[in-house]
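Quick one:
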Amino acid sequence: MNPQFLLPDRPLTVAILGSSGAVGKELLSLVEERSFPIKKLVLLASHRSAGEIQSFCGTDLKVEETTQDSFDNVDLVLASAGSSISRKWKDKIQSSGALMIDNSSAFRMDEDVPLVVPEVNPTDVIKHKGLIANPNCTTILLALVLSPLNRHIPIKRIVVSTYQSASGAGALAMEELEKLSQEVLDGGTPKSKVLPYSLAFNLFLHNSSLQSNKYCEEEMKMVNETRKILGNPELSLTATCVRVPVLRAHSESVNIEFTNPFPVKEAYEVLESAPGVEILEDLQKNRFPMPEDVTGKDSISVGRIRQDISNPNALELWLCGDQIRKGAALNAVQIAELLIPTKS
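Output:
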């Protein structure tokens, strides 16, 4: 790989922008767990979170308010503070000479910004101009399955329904789900403040804004991002996204139509060897992947791969993955790891 696209060949100064959020805290945990080459770690957030203490490698670090000077002498910014914050600080980060890996939707569909899932399109990182986008959580999980299957037999059409946990709306939504669930158990009437409706013993269609075609923003993210990651702008894909009363980890029901019949046995063989994917099922016990199986885990779990009885060229499958981990923080760290110079 051309050295101009790589991170400096030395321990790095890394900033986590949005360090007080659920994904930010996961990023902090992962760079320690994966021994990412860090000389200095800077934790950044809004003024509301400034002063919060977080631990890294046995040392207490104080969260700092993000300012114009926050990115001076920084090599890498892992950003997970939302689209408006990413847009606000992008130019400052890039002018400082730092590489920005952004977890928001702000730049994902920009033509000159790579959108990367390391197991799927790792070479796209060399296209970066100081900014790489991290895909939407549901898109990452889906791409891990679609890519190896598509390499075996080309995909013609995908129909996906998602079952998305509270974690996708952040730490406050997770806390609210716990609180409102207890209120219901205590005989009360839950009133949501973080999400538009209570998730306690309830579910609702994804609350992102409706588009002119009556698809919500989350559904169109899946469509457009999957096309970009797989390098197929004409790929036929339709999605329905649902928010469900699960704390952490998303699930997806996926119907995939191929150009030719895809034997179920071959699909299992392909996915068993696919990076970032594990098969989890017990047919005798009707046991397939559940959110609790993948919470805190790097890989996604897939099961119940079966022939679509309505279409000889289509397969059905079910998958679960940790939204905060592989669906966000882990994928961002893995992107950064692609850019660490290797010793010859």
